[in-house]
Amino acid sequence: MHAIVVRQAGGPEVLQYEEIADLTPGPGEVVVRLHAVGVNPVETYVRAGGQGYSAALPYTPGSDGAGVVAAVGDGVPVWLEGSRVYLSGALTGSYADIALCRADQVHPLPDALSFEQGAALGVPYATAYRALFDRAQVQPGETVLVHGASGGVGIAAVQLAAAHGCTVIGTAGTEEGRRLVLAQGAARVYDHHAQGYLDAVQADTGGRGFDVIVEMAAHVNLGRDLGVLAPGGRVIVVGSRGPIEINPRDLMGRDADVRGMSLRTVSPEALARVHAALGDRLRAGTLRPVVGRRLPLAEAAEAHRAVMEDRALGKIVLVP
After folding, report:
1. Of 45, 63, 155, 190, which is least surrounded by CB within 10 A?
2. Domain assignment of residue 275, yes or no
3. What is the DSSP letter of 186?
4. What domain range includes position 297?
5. For residues 309 and 189, which has the higher predicted lDDT (pLDDT)?
6. What is the rounded CA–CA span in Å between residue 177 and residue 313?
7. CATH number (domain holding residue 78)
8. How many domains does the chain have?
9. 231 and 144 fall within a common domain
């Protein structure tokens, strides 16, 4: 089999395509033959050893992917072998032909979804679900701003909030991205590079502001987000690449909150609940992962460069 192996922290060039030994499942484990692998920004932080992330070397990156269960270990139902699944983690990393996973890290992939769409589910949809329902406790009828809506997490948040009965407004940095966000259920979408765009966005709410803001780039936007919150509003920080100065009075005058979230803090039991809820929505057809770019597994370095650019259009996937 082949996998991407990282032997030292550094830039994308440290992602090396290597042949490695085959995998055998132990008790409670499964081996998945991967047909597609999802790429997430967090994997670039781990690779570089920045943003508070690190990993024991050498390692294979990745937690998202989709494929077919090739083998099961003791204690795992035999009928699971041959099933189409998507991953929410992998013991050996998912940037590979084959991944070793705990049985609770694989979830049914509906036949209506491709393997590439399945590879777009794990981190983006679990993150968006937790941001909206666990942290923001969003309610039908509320107005939600998804700040940076054309990437994997942003699209997931738009779809989930719109299906929940919320009015969703998104932002994106390209015309193609804005068209994509509208197609996912947003009522309106704005260019977050335009001068004074937040004034126009707030006017869209009749001046009341937003009940919930899902924020992908808090290091740029958080200070301004606080000025467009509704009374009792909540900003959920999904991503940030550095510090920012805010005025706490913007929170005080609105009785508002800033709440962080990370999948690293979630217990296995809570994560299982998230994926059970996502499974219900996948079977109902309300979630439609969008794949924006496909690259061969051997070109993981290019995928890491692309995932950090400000022109996201859905999920980047690697194809083994």
Report:
1. 45
2. no
3. -
4. 2-121+289-319
5. 189
6. 6
7. 3.90.180.10
8. 2
9. yes
